[in-house]
Design goal:
This protein is of the alpha/beta class. The protein has helices spanning about 25, 40-45, 65-75, 90, 100-115, 130-135, 145-160, 175-180, 195-215, 240-265, 270-275, 285-290, 345-360, 385-400, 445-455, 460-465; strands spanning about 15-20, 80-85, 120-125, 165-170, 225-230, 230-235, 295-300, 305-310, 325-330, 360-365, 375, 380, 405-410, 430-435, 440. Helix content is about 40%, strand content about 15%. The structure holds beta-D-fucopyranose.
Length: about 475
C-alpha cells in the first residue's frame, strides 16, 4: 500500500465532529430488564447455529448498567460526539402502542450524561433490533412496519428531541433487507430474495415517514440523516463486462436506497435487473414522494471495497438478489480480521462521488477495524488499528480538500462488542472489554484518538510506535 496517506500535518477542519459509535443490541445487555421485550436479534442469536459460539447480546458490554463510566471513558477520549442507538423494544415494547417510561428514562439519562460531559448526542433510531412481534407479523416485508417505525420515531423524538443533535433514521438498511431477508445471515434469518426487495422498499418508506415526524417532534433544529453502507464496487481489471457487473451490483447495493431517498425514484435498470423475481408491485402511488424527504446529511459507513466481473454460470451473491452471472473476486490485502481489505482510497472515492451526485453534507458514521488484540501487561498495543484509522481519517481530509462537505467521523467502535453473527469473536473497539469481568482497557488506539481529538491533527504515526 502506498504511503501517501501518511502525510504529516493533516488537520481537522473547524467544527468537524470526531466521535465514536456503538449500537444498542451490541453493547447494552439487560435484555429483559425494565420492560424491554425481545427483538429479532434476541430470537435469532438464541437459535442454534446462528452466531459464532452461540453468543448472544444478553449481557454484551453490560452498558445498560455501566453507561456512566462508559461516558466517562468517552469524555476522557475528548470525543466531540457519540453515535448511539435506541432499542425500539425498550422504548415501545412489542413495537406498537404504549411507550415504556423506563426505557425512555434510560436514554434520557444517557443523553443528559453526554451533555454534562460536553459530548453531542447523535442517535440512530434503528440499528436492527426490530421488536419480534413485528417480525411475527411479517417484519420489514410487511408495509405496516414502516408506519409502526414512524410512530416509534415520533415517541422517541418527543422524549429526547430537545437535546439530541443528530437523528439517524436507519442504520444500513441494505443489511436489514438483504442480510436479514435474502442471505439469512442476519436476523430474522430469512432466505427469500423477492421478499427482501419488499423489505428494502418498506425500509425506505419507514425512513420517509419518520423524517417529518422527527422534524415535528424535535425542538432543537437537529440534523436529520440516514446512514447507508455504500458499496465501493470496482470492475475486475482484466475482464470485459466489468462495467456491467459494477452497474448491477451498484443498483442493488447502493442505488436501491440512494435513488428513492435522494432523487425520489427507483432506477429503471434496477427494476429491469430484478424483474424475474419481483415487479415491485409493493410500491404504491405516492410512496416515492413520501420517501423523498429533504434530509440534512447522508451518513456513510465504510470498511472496504469489492471487485466484480461478469462470469457466466457464477451463482452471484445471496446477499445481492439477481446477481447470477456475477463473480466477486478476492481483493488484494492487507486484510483485517474480518477478511475485509484495507483501502482508504475507497472512502475518499465514495465521499467524492456522494458529494458530486447529491451535494448534501456527509459524515462518516462508521469506520474501523477488527484485529486479534492481545493484552500485554495490562495494555493493548494495536498499531494495525491505529494505522487503519489514521489512513482513513487522512482520506477524509483529502476528500474535504476536494470540496466534500464532510461534517464528522465516527470510529466504530468505542467498545469491543457483539459483532452480530460473529458474536464476540471480532473486536472493533478502541477500548477493550473483558467479557468475563466487564473490565475496560483503553487500547493504544484510544490514546491515538485522544491525541487527534486534543490536537485536531493526525499525529506522526512513527511517534506512536
Ligand atoms: C456495520 C454495522 C455495525 C458493525 C460494523 C462492523 O455493518 O453497522 O453494527 O457491526 O459493521
Amino acid at each position: 500500500m502506498s504511503d501517501d496517506y501518511r502525510d504529516l500535518g493533516v488537520t481537522l477542519p473547524d467544527g468537524f465532529l470526531l466521535g465514536t459509535a456503538t449500537a444498542s443490541y451490541q453493547i447494552e445487555g439487560a435484555v429483559s430488564e425494565d420492560g424491554r421485550t425481545p427483538s429479532v436479534w434476541d430470537v435469532f442469536s438464541h437459535a442454534p447455529g446462528r452466531t459464532e459460539n452461540g453468543d448472544t447480546g444478553d449481557v454484551a458490554d453490560d452498558h445498560y448498567h455501566r453507561w456512566e463510566s462508559d461516558l466517562d471513558l468517552l469524555r476522557d477520549l475528548g470525543a466531540d460526539a457519540y453515535r448511539f442507538s435506541i432499542a425500539w423494544p425498550r422504548v415501545q415494547p412489542g413495537g406498537a402502542g404504549r411507550v415504556n417510561d423506563a426505557g425512555i428514562a434510560f436514554y434520557s439519562r444517557l443523553v443528559d450524561g453526554m451533555l454534562e460531559r460536553g459530548i453531542r448526542p447523535w442517535a440512530t433510531l434503528y440499528h436492527w433490533d426490530l421488536p419480534q412481534e413485528l417480525e411475527d407479523a411479517g417484519g420489514w416485508t410487511n408495509r405496516d412496519t414502516a408506519s409502526r417505525f414512524a410512530e416509534y420515531a415520533a415517541r422517541a423524538v418527543e422524549a429526547l428531541g430537545d437535546r439530541v443533535a443528530g437523528w439517524i433514521t436507519l442504520n444500513e438498511p441494505w443489511c436489514s433487507a438483504f442480510l436479514g431477508y435474502a442471505a439469512g445471515i442476519h436476523a430474522p434469518g430469512r432466505r427469500d430474495p423477492a421478499a427482501s426487495l419488499a423489505a428494502a422498499h418498506h425500509l425506505n418508506l419507514a425512513h420517509g415517514l419518520a423524517v417529518p415526524e422527527i422534524r415535528r417532534a424535535a425542538s432543537n433544529d437537529p440534523t436529520v440523516a440516514i446512514t447507508l453502507n455504500l458499496h465501493v464496487v470496482r470492475p475486475a481489471e482484466d475482464e470485459d463486462g466489468g462495467g456491467e457487473a459494477v452497474r448491477r451490483v451498484d443498483a442493488i447495493g447502493n442505488r436501491i436506497f440512494l435513488d428513492p431517498v435522494l432523487h425520489g425514484r427507483y432506477p429503471q435498470d434496477l427494476l429491469d435487473d430484478q424483474r424475474a423475481i419481483s415487479d415491485f408491485g409493493f410500491v404504491r402511488p405516492g410512496d416515492l414522494e413520501l420517501i423523498h424527504q429533504p434530509i440534512d446529511l447522508l451518513g456513510v459507513n465504510y470498511y472496504s471495497t469489492s471487485r466484480v466481473r461478469l462470469a457466466p454460470g457464477a451463482p452471484g451473491s445471496p446477499a445481492f438478489p439477481s446477481t447470477a452471472g456475477i463473480e466477486w473476486l478476492p481483493e488484494p490485502g492487507p486484510l483485517t480480521e474480518m477478511g475485509w481489505n484495507i483501502d482508504p482510497s475507497g472512502l475518499e472515492e465514495l465521499l467524492v462521488r456522494s458529494h458530486e451526485e447529491f451535494g448534501i453534507p456527509l459524515a462518516v458514521t462508521e469506520n474501523g477495524a477488527a484485529f486479534p488484540d492481545r493484552v500485554t501487561d495490562g495494555a493493548v498495543h494495536d498499531p494495525a488499528r491505529i494505522d487503519y484509522l489514521h489512513r482513513h481519517l487522512a482520506a477524509c481530509r483529502r476528500a474535504i480538500d476536494r470540496g466534500v462537505d464532510l461534517r464528522g467521523y465516527f470510529v466504530w467502535s468505542l467498545l469491543d462488542n457483539f459483532e452480530w453473527s460473529f458474536g464476540f469473536s471480532k473486536r472493533f473497539g478502541i477500548v477493550r472489554v473483558d467479557y468475563a469481568t466487564q473490565e475496560r482497557i483503553p487500547k493504544d488506539s484510544a490514546r491515538w484518538f485522544a491525541e487527534v481529538a486534543a490536537t485536531r491533527a493526525l499525529p506522526d504515526p512513527a511517534e506512536l510506535r
